[in-house]
Amino acid sequence: MKPHYFIGIKIPQDIAECLAKERESWHLKSHKRQTPAQDMHITLLFIGEDVHDEIKQVEKLLGTIKQQVFTVNINSIKTFGNPTTPRIIYASLETSRQLEELQQQVHKSVETLQIKPDPKKFVPHITLASRWAGGEPAERQFSIAHMRFDVTEFSLFRIAPKETPRYQHIANYTLENTPTNFKGECL
Q1: How large is the average pLDDT for residues 136-142?
Q2: What pLDDT, on a 0 to 100 scale, did the predictor assign at position 168?
């Protein structure tokens, strides 16, 4: 089986550790997988398997993207799937024009290739837990402290399911002009 790939934004370590700590405070037993801090990210585009051997072209095309540094805000916890037995629990991001623009540029950059990116609508999120484990339905509401951080780069990742970290950088792409010296904070 060939490796799978995606393009995404790695969450700064301090923010990822805050998210993991908040999740641990929930004593979550409803999901089989809890995303380790070092693997937390925002997926911009899932590529999957590189069946046409185009990953080197993807790497080059991503280098043509021009985007300014911007700040994202994490503001709530949401789920994908049935609310009582959710497939995924995630940290939701406030709407960001800059994040949407970056995602659209990433998507457009690979349109000329044979790669068939995931057709699902872009929902910016950070997966905290996945794979419903069964048991009692999840009825409680999860909360999270407001957090924010600057997005200064995005990356091409290879998925290595049996390794740590699971998501490995192949190439990083630095965004232009840092508007502030702000890095990130857990409020």
Answers
A1: 63
A2: 95
